[in-house]
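Hello,

Our lab assistant flagged a job as stuck in the queue for most of the afternoon. It eventually completed. Since we weren't sure the result was trustworthy after the delay, we are filing this so someone can double-check. Below is the sequence as submitted and the structure that was eventually returned. Let us know if re-running is recommended.
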Amino acid sequence: MISLHRAHALAEAGLRWRPVSGDSFAIPGKDMDAARFTVSELTIEVHTYPTGTVLGFNGTTEWALDSVAVEDTLWLPREDQLRELLGETFVALTRDGTAYQVHTHDAVDGEARAYTAAAPADAYADALLHLLREAGAASTP
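-- returned structure --
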């Protein structure tokens, strides 16, 4: 699973989350940083209201938490979601000893890049973070 540090960096770089069943998330800053939650229609449901989107904790007796605004959560994208977000820039995932490398190419100049991390999800996150930052820099006047 992606590290909280990288998930924070992706959110700060502009990655937005539209919660769907199977997504994982954390609730940072509420003394629950270590807890991981998964959206499921059986337990945690996404409710969209005119005032905003909340995640409803339905049927959970062990939590005193009824719902949480999606803005107060941190999405922890899976490897497949990160790979999909990389789109056509993604080339391959390789393993070199104990490290994983995500290989990409720049859509404009075709330059090859590699992002290395101990976990595949973190290597994907680093590649996506670079892509988001490049896109942000390109749109800045």
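-- support follow-up --
The delay was a queue issue, not a problem with the job. The result is valid. Residues 18-76 form one domain. Strands lie at 24-27, 32-38, 44-49, 52-57, 67-69, 74-75, 90-96, 99-105, 112-117.
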